């Protein structure tokens, strides 16, 4: 087990290094140099050269790369080219919006997906099962940004629930009501897409598990149907679902770009999008590192959690 | 189900009236005939054919209406407030904020979506199959490296990196942006294919017919691509049919964010980007509806294909 964790940890570090290096190289070979994007189209050659020198972009590539690696390793993400603020504090400022967005959506899709999945599996081919599979198909097909465009249109514009709002992120500790007014639609938009995968996954996994011998044994012992399904069945059925959950929640930090952009939430998704457009290299790299870190840590937790959840899994 | 239907079901579908010769049919032909009996799959094929015709007919629509996709008619297509006018005799599906014909643009957008979806899938499938077969068959260090490589690609924050790639090489011509979009999508889709192919190959290479081929003196290349490859047709067809809608959504998302297909060429994603749908519903529902219809149809078809190749598998849509 210990060796397994070390191996996964090393692999995680490798992923972090590869992801940031790839993005670093991509930004470096960009045909529109950063200093020109910052200086603007009308700047003189001298200004551009000055910016280039000040940002240290005139140093050789390997020197720049080495100093990036060294700084990152010591936890120094540098300063934004555009606002001159510390990258770590910019990210810290934007992170709550994204974390709340992902967390709220995750609760919705996890609970929603498992509930409908279990109901579909135990009442296979019922009306509920059919309705839910229809929604699954819709959720799998609809592009995230279209969902984000449709929800406010449907709820605010058509049904006329003006309680819902779209707008900047507000901390739940400052104004809990406004927080909910602005977050519920983004949560729904994000969760609807993923709930589909979870419903299908739970349904399939649950149907497999319910066909196993030990479920028959549990029933034969005279346990109530509810206990058989939830205590014996769901626990084993959860393994693949939790695996998927870990992978998704990590990956989602990077995919909130679209939801945040459409709803105008100022999280790290919108931050990285704007930084890419402006050529703010340090911020892009900082967010990339953070997103990759989320993916790696989530995967690590899943790998380790696996063996606790399902006693049949043994890791060498 | 009535008794007669039950009776009809009891007779195998390929049973011919007495006297005819019984022909052997390949698994692929069998799968295709099962697919043609699947109502949902046939309906999706019909929808897709209509969308393909719509895409092919784009230049025809442009010449009938007299509105090329890039042409702007700010005076006749917008009202006195400068807002785009809705569907009318001149502009069948309304106009966009720049006064362009939404119908014509949607038809050209269909070309982009279908082309990108299929081209990216073909590219991802080719790369995925080659890497998967090599990793699975050769094994050892090659497999270890390739499998790790797939894991790394799968743990990339793909949308973020895709936007960085698209911005870095920001091409100024439509064709280059098309090529770039396809490449970016393929880069982040091949790994899933490679992983599944690898798994299949690992189990296939232990089979007797591979041993037979080897004892007959077949080389590695021959075994990999002549003996093993044909056995991968079913899983690869199933997975790639489901990759098409994913690629279409990927392209639409990139274009929506402004880093996919570059103007003047319209794409459904970029059409939705400049939609101020509060006042002009058609700007949301024409490209959005077409996009959803296309991905739905591809997903249903993919599901039907999976069912046709492996009737025991779990379906998306359950039925009686």
Structural overview:
The complex is a heterodimer of chains A (316) and B (320). Chain A is mainly α. Chain A has twelve helices and no strands. In chain A, helix 5 (87-122) packs parallel to helix 12 (281-309), helix 6 (127-141) crosses helix 8 (176-210) and helix 8 (176-210) crosses helix 10 (225-263). Chain B has one domain: MetI-like fold. Chains A and B meet through helix 1, helix 6, helix 7, helix 8 and helix 10 of A and helix 6, helix 7, helix 11 and helix 13 of B. Chain B: InterPro entries: BP-dependent_transpt_permease, MetI-like, MetI-like_sf, OppC_N.
State the CATH class of the largest domain in chain A: Mainly Alpha
The low-pLDDT segments of chain B are: 1-9, 316-320
N- and C-termini, Cα separation of chain A: 6 Å
Structural class of chain B: mainly alpha
CATH topology descriptor of chain B: MetI-like fold
CATH class designation of chain B: Mainly Alpha
User: Could you report the average pLDDT of chain B, rounded to the nearest whole number?
Assistant: 84
Order of helical and strand elements of chain B: HHHHHHHHHHHHH
- Give the overall pLDDT of chain A as a whole number: 84
Transmembrane segments (chain B): 40-62, 112-137, 149-169, 175-197, 228-261, 281-302
Membrane topology (chain B): Multi-pass membrane protein
InterPro entries (chain B): BP-dependent_transpt_permease (IPR050366), MetI-like (IPR000515), MetI-like_sf (IPR035906), OppC_N (IPR025966)
Region (Disordered) (chain B): 1-20
